[in-house]
Amino acid sequence: MPLRVLVVDDEVDYATALVARLRRRGFTADAVFSGADAVTRVRTGATDVLLLDLKMPGMDGLATLRAVRQAAPRVRVIVLTGHGTVAS
Q: Residue 28: which residues within 8 A CB-CB, separation 6 or more?
């Protein structure tokens, strides 16, 4: 069974392109465009790996990560961002 990847990024074009590339490589992939939507989706149990942007309006990536850890502690998270700092 292929890994189920959820891309979380407020940049729709980037997230959509990444989902297309993941699907071509055999992953089951989908995208959401906010932290709140990511937490809702993760609660369904249909996600193995989250590709998470840090800088998003509303619920940012770190708040999303904390909520995901509480909702689904077994989901693996990979942070992808162009705005990261050593502290974050």
A: 2, 3, 4, 5
